[in-house]
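Final report, Chapter 2: Outcomes

The project's central promise was a pipeline that accepts a single protein chain and returns its three-dimensional structure in a standardized token representation, suitable for archiving and comparison. That pipeline is now operational. To close this chapter, we reproduce one record exactly as it appears in the project archive, with the input sequence first and the structure output second.
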Amino acid sequence: MSHIALRDYQAQAQYIKFEQWHIGCFSPVPLQVTSSHDKPVVIDKPVVLFLHGFPSASYDWHYQWQALRHSHICIGMDFLGFGISDKPYPHQYTLQQQTDAVCVLLEHMKAIGIEACHVVAHDYGVSVAQELVARSQSPALVNDQQPELNVALPVEFQSVSFLNGGLFAALHKPLFTQKLLKSSLGPIAVKLMNKRALHQSFMSIFGPNTPPSPTLINDLWQLLIVHDGRRVIPSVLQYIDERAVFAQRWQDALVNSKIPLAFINGIYDPISGQHMLDEFIRLLPNAKTFALDVGHYPQIEAPEAVTKALMECWT
């Protein structure tokens, strides 16, 4: 599959307003109707919403977007604090707030005529997708720690497909660098973070036969430093603790979900590889699962295999 240039990714962005911030979104159809004179948006293909991981951006999905561009409407967003979206500082970043931002995007999708979509999530986006699944259920079906979070979603989910991520907080194995950056030393350590350090971290989580390319590292680094993005990393990383707080709520939501679920897993991932897949199969034996001989970023390391698996999930 061909590579999408970073400049093209940035040029294709649309922006929506979330609270006082701007969120970079990507869609082949306009996400906002600005005038009554605008032509109606034609939704003539299945819609897929892609949610990216830490510390990258929706750019992670560019192979899938290219492969699916003729058969599906692929939509993505850079989370607050990520990619080309605003990166407020100082700010307390939370997964709940990121889920609220996705709900704003879903409202825009609803307004242009999208009634339903598939969801595909990776890493950080996995936790957001889990919260979305929880919010889609009645309060009686989830561990009701915060009942005000159980609200109707504007768009129906036809399926949710997870890639590598901390589905089960107790099994998540963050890197030493992640632990350091989220600690009290984080604001100091993050100043020493550079492209070489990013490359070393990615080498440790990619599969042994599918290392990250220099072009990928350069592109992700350029996205990370937009709006001085390094400085927000310690705050963003507090999501690791937030996963533990909502672990039971999210696990209950998966087990009780009426939405078809699937897990596409890079088994060589030291963070959320085979051990996470094993637990998913134990809890959800009837869900579709795919074990790939890659690491933490299956959508980049094995893009054709991931696209093929997604197509199977949607049939």
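Archive annotation: The chain has a mean pLDDT of 93.
This record, like all others produced under the grant, will remain available to the consortium after the project formally closes.
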